[in-house]
Amino acid sequence: MSVEVEVNENDLAEMVEQVWESYLDPEGLSPLLLTYDENQSSEVHSSVSISGSWTGHIVYASSFPAARRAAAAFMAAEPDEVSEEDLADVLGELANIVGGNVKAMLPDGAYLSLPQVVFAPEATARYPNAHRVSGVYGLWDGEPVSISMWQIRGDNNKEGAE
Amino acid sequence: MKILIADDSRVMRQIVVRTLRQAGFGDHVLIEAANGREALEKTKAEDPDLVLSDWNMPEMNGIECLRQLRAAGNDVKFGFVTSESTPEMKEQAETAGALFFIVKPFSAERFDEVLAPILG
User: Fold this and answer.
1) The pLDDT of residue A125
2) What is the pTM of this model?
3) Are the Cβ atoms of A23 and B14 closer than 8 angstroms?
């Protein structure tokens, strides 16, 4: 059975801040403004799964404009130069970066999957026996972006996303 | 010098290239591989001086690529640029012969700090 989660919202927020500083907003002009709204909408999402000492999923979700802007920032390009392939690549990498950093905070024996990207709202995802344990929700220049952690427990039958 | 960048994300390979330039290493020859197997083949075929490799990749991961290179007698300088960095992984990497870990998200300063002693 996986351990109780040891990564809280402050840890996630710190990881998100590092991603913004390094890739999405290196000049510090457009930070992610936290809304704490767990039910904010999304149009695309990406995820990585962690198994072993902790079992669950890390999910990055956003609107299309926020995804396009993220891809443009990664590529040092303009948003209208971003292809669908670029969008998928960057969304997967965002989930991978946060997932890798989450994994580093877990006990030894955790394994990270390759990312999966879905051009559909996070609300369409179903993670069997998983429940949300932590999340950072915010607006990036008015567009919704969230990063959440879903833990799988063998001792209940709850199913998400809700 | 020739540097091989292995990452399954094309955009991340672009970022590594950009960061190498920002850190002052843009005048080296840069070649790319999209997974560990391709990195293994290109390292054997093109004989780079340094391999910067992601850990988690399809086909073959970075640590397996390093192990196979060493098993084949190839002693190319090899380091990881990855979102994952646990004591367990660092031990595996060191045992296999890796020189360093650069964790994503990274900065040009971090590249300079790690690569300057290697690339000069």
Assistant:
1) 87
2) 0.91
3) no
Residue B5 — pLDDT band, cuts 50, 70, 90? very high
Domain ranges of chain A: 9-26+38-152
Is B2-119 a CATH 3.40.50.2300 domain? yes
Task: Please state, in angstroms and rounded to a whole number, the distance separating the CA atoms of residues B105 and A46.
Answer: 17
Out of A75, A104, A110, closest to residue B11 by CB: A75
Q: What is the rounded distance in angstroms from the CA atom of residue B26 to the CA atom of residue A47?
A: 33
Q: What residues of B are in contact with residue A23 (Cβ under 8 Å)?
A: 15, 105
> What CATH topology corresponds to A9-26+38-152?
Chemotaxis protein chec (3.40.1550)
Q: Is B91 on the interface with A (CB under 8 A)?
A: no
CA distances from B29 to A41, B25, B35 (A): 44, 9, 19
Shortest CB distance from A100 goes to which of B15, B84, B88? B84
